[in-house]
Design a protein that fits this description.
The complex is a heterodimer of chains A (254) and B (309).
Chain A (H helix, E strand, L loop, with lengths): L1 E5 L2 E3 L19 E3 L3 H15 L2 E8 L4 H10 L3 E6 L7 H15 L4 E5 L10 H9 L3 E11 L2 E7 L3 E8 L2 E5 L11 H7 L4 E5 H4 L9 E6 L8 E2 L4 H15 L4
Parallel strand pairs in A: 1-4, 1-6, 4-5, 5-11, 6-10, 7-10
Antiparallel strand pairs in A: 2-3, 7-8, 8-9
Chain B lengths: L2 E5 L3 H15 L5 E7 L11 E7 L7 H15 L3 E5 L2 H14 L3 E10 L3 E8 L4 E8 L2 E5 L14 E7 L6 E7 L12 E5 L9 H10 L3 E4 L1 H4 L22 E5 L5 H4 L7 E6 L12 E4 L2 H15 L1
Parallel strand pairs in B: 1-2, 1-4, 2-3, 3-9, 4-8, 5-8, 11-12, 11-13, 13-14, 14-15
Antiparallel strand pairs in B: 5-6, 6-7
Helix pairs in contact in B: 2-3, 4-7
Classes of the chains: A alpha/beta (254), B alpha/beta (309).
The complex binds flavin-adenine dinucleotide and adenosine monophosphate (AMP).
Flavin-adenine dinucleotide sits at the interface of chains B and A.
Chain lengths: 254, 309
């Protein structure tokens, strides 16, 4: 079974600094593997161990994202493709187009795996767009994947229900975090990862933009929090009474 | 006249998106068309007209079928923009529609507007730390953040029809099972009592449910409780990956206050929290905080509420 896993090197929101006007300092900001992509890699590895085959990691990003690609290889993926582009200025559509071109180039794959959404921008757009560009059936928000022969039975986690669907192989899928517990690479695996093959591709050459007009970010800023931050002291009974009093005064308790 | 189309598989979300579309259309000389797939829905309103897309597709069909049907109609009728609700299914329909039409797609936006040449809006990024102002040349597709707009409750609308024939999806739905009974409507709740991992076991949730009831509110939760632990249906989950709420009072109980959670409740009018850890980030995002064990503070709070009569 050939499995493609799409992994993003995301901005690490907890490390992100703002300038005095509230603008995020993105140049040189720390990054990390998009949180749920660990689940996508894990699920790819799980399918591989069950059905044999190979896991290839695909990533659209700049040179700084290599570290995340290595991490996926250390977890156990066999090889990687880094599609060079400025991940912060290409939109979901272009990211998906570039991923589709690279996947088509080294395919065909039986499964194309993503996570439900990236931890920095959480759009949930790349996976369904990718499926469209590859012409594959698509199943989003998977919490369980069982492949047998030429069909996959997948459980999807929706807001109010669990849906069980059947898709033909090959298919594209996005996973939610409760699907598995991602493994941590061992020291030996981390060392071995640097020997695994990584192909480098140029995104704009691989997939020319054409006349597509993309989404642009006009500006970014933070909103300062204006909470009162009053700590109510005392025993549980005293503190609770103070809270009720404060909430009544605020007019938010009927 | 060029139109702004609206679709959501959920009636209530459709009414929110219709309110957003009314804002967009206003002043830009656009008309709003709320999409119905296959059949009209009673609970769905429009500030303009309705477009009934006919063929094999039905409201609530899979993203594959719904996006194909809307794409077919859009290729002919050329709407200026298509707005969808940012539900799990809505994100999929929007993305696939944009890919099929080869137009840009903005995600999770609020404050949607147009100057007639581009669609613009705001969205939160980096787990809610930052607001980004985004825009995309028309025609464009966008998903509107659930909970960002008040629901439209307009009356009747004129209905036009478009036949698109048979659309199919290679993915077959075998079954659909409701997560747990007792749907919650956090978007219209004035008070939300929200439970986090500080709650030790599922059996302790009724205590918080009772508290919510006594405060005339509803019970919400952090992501781990609905996703990883499965103690509550996903509809209760507040934050970046769940619902956005802005009640008069948000009471966070045993919630650490990570960015992704705060992203979903930071516009609440008053925020209070109960946590054993004095350094929990939730206190920074609160107006009132009680440093203490929820198993002691919640009963005390219920007593204090009861004492008011
Ligand atoms: C991409 C991404 C998206 C995410 N989206 C969301 C989202 O939409 N919503 C969301 O909620 N999370 C989301 N998360 C997860 C988020 O980062 C946090 O992990 C989560 O919010 C933590 O939940 P919690 O506060 O309930 O649990 P914890 O972080 O474990 O906090 C539990 C808290 O309870 C306190 N506590 C323990 N015992 C007691 C007691 N007896 N009495 C009182 N307090 C006690 C502890 O001090 C602690 O502060 C997302 C994460 C990622 C990576
Ligand atoms: N730059 C990228 N490189 C590789 N995969 C990506 C990239 N951006 C998004 N993805 C994949 O698409 C998923 C959803 O991302 P998003 O649509 O940005 O929320 C991610 O979890 C990844 O699996």
């Amino acid at each position: 079974m050939k499995i493609a896993v799409c992994v993003k090197h995301a901005v690490d929101e907890s490390e992100l600094k703002l300038d005095p006007t509230g603008k995020p300092l993105l140049a040189g900001a720390a990054g990390k593997m998009s949180a749920f992509d660990k689940n996508a890699v894990e699920e790819g590895l799980r399918l591989k161990s069950k059905h044999q085959g190979e896991v290839t990691v695909f990533m659209v990003g700049g040179p700084e994202s290599k570290k995340t690609l290595k991490e996926a290889l250390a977890m156990g993926a066999d090889k990687g493709a880094l599609i060079q582009a400025d991940a912060l200025t290409v939109d979901s559509f272009r990211t998906a187009e570039m991923l589709a071109a690279a996947i088509r180039k080294s395919g065909p794959f039986d499964v194309v795996m993503c996570s439900e959404g990236s931890s920095d921008t959480y759009s949930g757009q790349v996976p369904p767009m990718l499926a469209e560009f590859l012409g594959l059936p698509y199943v989003g928000y998977a919490r369980k994947i069982e492949v047998s022969g030429q069909t996959a039975r997948i459980e999807r986690s929706l807001e109010d229900s669990i849906e069980t669907v059947e898709a033909p192989v090959p298919f594209a899928v996005s996973v939610v975090s409760e699907i598995n517990e991602p493994r941590y690479p061992t020291l030996i695996q981390i060392m071995q990862a640097s020997k695994k093959p990584v192909e480098e591709l140029n995104g704009e050459e691989l997939s020319p933009r054409g006349d597509y007009k993309q989404v642009v970010v006009a500006s970014m800023s933070s909103q300062p929090s204006t909470r009162k931050r009053v700590i109510l002291e005392g025993s549980p009974d005293e503190a609770a009474a103070k809270l009720v009093e404060a909430l009544v005064k605020e007019g938010v308790l009927k | 006249m060029k139109s702004v189309w609206v679709y959501s598989e959920s009636d209530s979300v459709s009414n929110e998106v219709a309110a957003a579309a009314a804002e967009v259309a206003k002043g830009a000389g656009l008309d709003v068309q709320v999409i119905e797939l296959g059949e009209a829905r009673q609970g769905v309103s429009s500030p303009g007209g309705k477009l009934l897309i006919k063929g094999s597709v039905r409201n609530g069909d899979s993203a594959g079928a719904a996006s194909s049907a809307i794409a077919k109609a859009a290729a002919e009728l050329q709407p200026a923009a298509v707005l969808l609700g940012a539900t799990r299914t809505g994100r999929e329909i929007a993305s696939r529609l944009a890919a099929k039409l080869r137009v840009g797609c903005m995600a999770e936006i609020t404050k949607v507007a147009t100057d007639g040449t581009a669609l613009s809006g705001e969205r939160s990024v980096f787990a809610g730390k930052v607001v980004a102002r985004v825009s995309c040349p028309l025609p464009a597709v966008a998903t509107v953040k659930v909970g960002a707009y008040p629901r439209l409750t307009a009356g009747s609308a004129s209905v036009s029809e478009k036949e698109v024939g048979v659309v199919t999806d290679q993915v077959k739905v075998l079954s659909r099972e409701k997560k747990t009974a007792g749907a919650v409507d956090l978007k219209s709740a004035k008070v939300i009592v929200s439970a986090g991992r500080g709650v030790k076991k599922k059996e302790d949730l009724p205590m918080l449910e009772e508290l919510a009831k006594e405060m005339h509110g509803a019970l919400g939760c952090s992501r781990p409780l609905s996703s990883d632990l499965g103690w509550l249906p996903e509809e209760h989950h507040i934050g970046l990956t769940g619902v956005t709420v802005k009640p008069d009072l948000y009471l966070a109980i045993g919630i650490s206050g990570q960015l992704q959670h705060v992203a979903g409740m930071k516009d609440s009018k008053v925020v209070a929290s109960i946590n054993t850890d004095k350094d929990a980030p939730m206190f920074q995002a609160s107006d009132y905080g009680i440093i203490g064990d929820l198993y002691l503070v919640v009963p005390a709070l219920r007593k204090a509420l009861a004492a008011r009569g």
